[in-house]
Amino acid sequence: MQKNFVIRPEDIEYYKKQGVPLPTISPTERERRRLAFRNDPSLWYRKCDLSGEKILSQYPADAKFPVYKVDYWWEKDYEIPCADYDFERSFFEQFFELKNKVPHMSLVVDYASVVNCDYCHQLGYSKNCYLISRAMRNESCFYSFYIDDSLMSFDCLVVRYCELCYECIDCRNCYNLNFSQNCRNCHDSAFLFDCIGCSDCFCCVNLRRKKYCIFNKEYTKEEYKRELARLWPKSHEDEEKLSKKLAEFRKKFPHQAVYGHQNENSVGNHLYNSKNAFYCFDAYELWDCAYCSMLHMAKDCYDVTIFGDNVELCLECVTAGTHSYNLKFCIDCHVDVSYFEYCDLCYSSKYLFGCIGLRNKSYCILNKQYSKEEYEDLVPRIKAHMRQTGEYGEFFPMKYSPFLYKQSTANLFWPLSDSEIEKLGLTNTSHV
User: Fold this and answer.
1) 143: domain range?
2) Would you say residue 191 lies in a domain?
3) What pTM, to 2 d.p., does this model score?
4) Cis omega before residue 307 (within 30°)?
5) Residue 161 lies in a domain
6) Would you say residue 327 lies in a domain?
7) Distances from the Cα of 299 to the Cαs of 34, 149, 285, 315, in angstroms?
8) Which of 130, 213, 248, 257 is positioned for an S-S bond with 201, CB 3.0–4.6 A?
9) Is residue 198 part of a domain?
10) What is the tally of structural domains in the chain?
11) Residues 6+ apart with CB under 8 A from 116
């Protein structure tokens, strides 16, 4: 764990504006802590706690809270537990005690905006997709992660505006592209690396606006077709050999220090169309943001990981988006939400503090309804109490995650051994 890190003067101003204490751990550790509360890699079959039917879920059968099938969670009428705030106990204890009583969605899906996507997770505005996650506005896409605005693309990672693409990574605006990485505006090609505006190319590196090339050598259209028919892999073994050959070929060329374009006063990698974005990754259309990743269309946000789509003034959140404003320390809160602190799985609401599983609500604390005046009187006193206990300004501790560390998205980016997990104070049993 990083113990020493820099807090920039502009960071201090931002935290002051948000009314929160300065962070106590590094940006990397903050992101790992957030991603420990998200599960993209592991899904299980289990029973729906409302109907008893077999469902696919991000939560295993031994989860401590009720888990409902997605459409039941959205449509059925059921009671949502609430609690009074106890100033004699820590906030996190009370929050997770309530969380264990509240029904959870089996898979996080914006149910009203998806069609025939029963086996997808963290999904919205999509149709006929299968086993994709962290995905928006797709149709007929399979087996992919962080895929947006795409059609009929399979086995892709971090792609946008792509159609008929297969096994692509970090590609944008591509058509009929296979086995390629870091490409833009390419089509009818395969095994490309860092190519832009190319078509009918095969096993090429660093090309710009080229056509009929193989290993960067240009051919006539007829010659290209003959060579392509000879070289095109006929089996997985051929594909692996060709991938290795391309990897060796790549070593002959200079590589970009970072990938991105149309950025102003920004620092990061795979960052696009952004201004004043600091230490941001796999992101686009950011403005005055810092320490964000896998985020798009965001303004004035710090420490937000996944997903965006018009978010503003959000701090230390994971999976926040679709018209979200002024959220602090939240998990899975989206679709027209504002003025949340320490909330989980809440939709289309405003002015919530420490709430779980609410929709279309306002002025609630630990899911209990208050008047506007009561809410505005109680929240500052809760924050003062949390400052005394050292909780306010900190994201939820990893020990409270409903996922084992090795089941979480954090483990995809920071894989740990069992002994390292133990050193973090976590165990090999359910944390909640």
Assistant:
1) 139-250
2) yes
3) 0.94
4) yes
5) yes
6) no
7) 20, 21, 8, 11
8) 213
9) yes
10) 1
11) 127, 128, 129
